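Whether sequence alone determines local backbone shape is best considered at the level of individual chains. The sequence in question and its structure tokens are set out directly beneath this paragraph.

===
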Amino acid sequence: MPGAAVTVQSNDRQFGVTTNEKGEFFIPAVPAGRYNISVSMLGFKTYVSNNILVYSGKETVLGISMEEDIYTLEEVSVMSKYINS
């Protein structure tokens, strides 16, 4: 999904990016360690995954699926009033 907000964080570090037109993201220079990741986009439930292990010198690849979040809104009526001048 293009334009999704991605946040990767640990206790003392936080990185954030948005996905590209293919729904991909890349965060350079993330130090090795364990991270929590969240991905959010309007109309979808926020994806959260904890304890993602990032290794030194190796790319971490994630396949993330997001679930649609359906909002139920109340009815809206639009009316016009014709004024003859």
